[in-house]
Amino acid sequence: MLNAYISDEILRWQLTFTDDFYKQVFRLWNLPFIPKYIKNKPSFIGKLTTKYIYEGLPKGIISKIKENAGKTEKGNWKYKWHQTLTPEIGREHLKKQIIQVTTLMEVSESKEQFNALFQQKYNKKPVQLQLEFDEEPERPMKLSDFNKKLKKGLDYNPKDEDEEDDESELV
User: Fold this and answer.
1) All residues at 6 or more sequence positions from 82 whose CB lies less than 8 Å from its CB, including other chains
2) Which of 59, 83, 136, 148 is spaced 20 to 30 A from 14 at the CA atom?
3) Above 60 in pLDDT, residue 163?
């Protein structure tokens, strides 16, 4: 399995993580997205990338990626993790994972909703489904004149008038 995913040599860098992916991460985590600063993104973005993208690869791949990518004296990675993947299988799986996760982020209105969708899709842990209920307010709401008229219009049913006419004819 490792041989199918991990390349024997470090591959040339290729654009793998698109701006779309980062735009969605920044949006959901309420950060301003400035494309020219994308190379100097906050370190937690790397943790999110590992959690949502690389952990979607088969077991054992991340540890082999880390081994092959190596670290500098300053503690930074010598190579981007995707440079250690085989073009045919590893990189293609990674690109598919990026597209799927980006799509989940695009349809999410918050990071909490994204997390729930991610967990549901990848069966990371049981997800408790949230049901939406129309709750009645504790006290009756006071309606403005406009809203009273609007409510009367929305509640209007011509059949009710027909029934009243029928009853008046009987009397």
Assistant:
1) 14, 16, 17, 91, 94
2) 59
3) no
